[in-house]
Amino acid sequence: MQLRSEASARFERGVDPELPPIALARFCELLEAKPSAMLEVVPYLFEPERVKVRFAKLNSYLNHEFLIDEVKGLLEPIGFGVVPLEEDLLVTVPSFRPDCAIEVDIIEEVARHYGYSKVDKLRLNPPQVGGLTRQQKLRRGIRAFARDNGFNEMWGSSMLSPSEHSPFGISDQAISLSNPLAKEESVLRRSLLPSMARALVHNSNRQNFPIRLFEIGKVFEPKATEEGLPLETERLAFLLTRPDSAIDEMTRLLGLCFGFFKLPPPILDTANVLHSGSVLTSWPKLHPTRSAAVVCNSIPAGILGELDRDLVATLTSNTTKDRVAYLELDLGVLFSQLPGATQAKPISPFPPSEFDLAFLVPETIGAQEVVRAIRSSVGELCESVYLFDSYKSKELGEATKSLAVKIRLQNQTATVTEKEIQDVIARVASDMSATFDAKLRTA
After folding, report:
1. DSSP letter, residue 298
2. Is 175:186 a contact under the CB 8 Å cutoff?
3. Is 228 left (phi over 0), alpha (psi -120 to 50) or beta?
4. CA dihedral sign, ordered 255, 272, 327, 226
5. Which CATH architecture has domain 134-336?
6. Could you give the CA distance from residue 74 to residue 360 in angstroms, rounded to a whole number?
């Protein structure tokens, strides 16, 4: 009847199969009768469980070095039989303990009777798992950077209609899907601009101005890789609308973006955009006179410009008169040009030495060139060099200027001596004279 009762709670975990003969013997004793014979009807003969316990595993689980006699002294008083093998124990489980069937059950019994409070605590020190790669951290940082600059993230579909590339001057050699769900989603995009143009039209039709969008997504080229697969690259795109100066704001954003990546300032090359044989032919074509290729360390990294106003009017059905600026960057190129990780220097226990030097240099020489040359000339002792004064006067001459720098020397193993300082000054003065025809000011 599946009813919960006191008896079911007592016997549902199993019954000792060796109890019936004992119970019958007691019953006969109470009757003061001795049976002439006993007939047992059982479906099977009971065989006690024998569990092999690895001694090394027992010690490892309980973080304690047990002796064999110690384990026998814990198990045998509660009915378990223990037979030592070479490196293991063969434990015979008593009939009244059907709950002990595997190795860890025996180990638990040892721990229970030894005393949990006596078992040494084992602090697990698993290796560091998970974590974000440098590129993953940068992607998260890019999203935060874009949001901080007032842009909203959009997710565009990677599948487009075959006709969506042509308005932006992208060739129709896109990768076609073998089994598309619809013709409007039958090719893979070669640029993020068609997807962003969809969002531009959607927001423009609803007068959601100003429009400031960004997206990080994949584009696909028909070029085959070594594995025979299409070339898949990751790009970052920004789109914004303004009544005027949209391209100026986007150019400012480009500089901030390169600063975020700690890359040198980008070069905007208009020739690469206009030249038909350019490596940027697979990128979208923007306004012919208000666009440029973005170059990072002599490597084409993207495109910046405005969308042609006639094209914007056609796409949005004249719902906006704003200018539309667009920026698309190849994240693979930017990631490949990232500077190496900064190496922290140990703090020296010895005091640093600081002194100032001023040089008369030709006016055409840049201050940063002078600082770099001095840092190179100082050598290993150089902790820092920075410019703190630039001075011109009639007394110096029209083609001459004075640059003053502060030099900080630091030694990790000893205090910088006066002789080392004088050697550095002499070496810097000599190198500056040879490189820039500069003169050390002494008064």
Report:
1. T
2. no
3. left
4. negative
5. 2-Layer Sandwich (3.30)
6. 91
Beta-carbon contacts of 206 under 8 Å, excluding residues fewer than 6 positions away, are none
pTM above threshold 0.85 = no
Residue 439 tokens read as 């003169």
Alpha-carbon dihedral of residues 423, 428, 433, 434, nearest 10 degrees?
A: 90
Whole-number Cα distances in Å, 114 to 71, 73, 317, 353: 9, 10, 84, 66
- State which CATH number among 3.30.830.10, 3.30.56.10, 3.20.20.140, 3.30.310.50 fits the domain covering 11-118: 3.30.56.10
Rounded CA separation 182/173 (Å): 19
**Which of 190, 197, 195 is closest to 219 using CA atoms?**
190
- Sequence spans of domains, the chain: 11-118, 134-336, 353-440
CB of 222 closer than 8 Å to CB of 230: yes
Going residue by residue through the chain, which has 443 residues, state the pLDDT in tens, using 9 for 90 and above. Answer: 677 788 777 777 677 777 877 888 888 888 776 666 767 666 667 788 899 999 889 988 888 889 888 999 999 999 899 998 888 889 999 888 888 889 999 999 999 999 988 888 777 777 777 788 889 999 999 999 999 999 999 999 999 998 888 888 887 788 888 888 898 889 999 999 999 999 999 999 999 999 999 999 999 988 777 777 888 999 999 999 999 889 999 999 999 999 999 998 898 887 655 444 445 556 888 888 899 999 998 899 999 999 999 999 999 988 888 999 999 999 999 999 998 777 777 888 999 999 999 999 998 888 889 999 999 999 999 999 999 999 888 888 888 999 999 999 999 899 999 999 999 999 999 999 999 999 998 86
Q: Which two tokens stand for residue 387?
A: 């410019």
Cβ neighbours for 410, distance < 8 A, ≥ 6 positions apart: 348, 350, 352, 353, 381, 383, 416
Q: Which CATH superfamily is domain 353-440 in?
A: Ferrodoxin-fold anticodon-binding domain (3.30.70.380)
What is the DSSP track for 214-230?
A: EEEEEEEEEEE-TTSPE
DSSP state letters, 252-293 = HHHHHHHHHTTPPPPEEEHHHHH-TTSTTTTSPP--TTSEEE
Same fold, 11-118 and 134-336: no
Q: Rounded distance, CA 355 to CA 349, Å?
A: 20
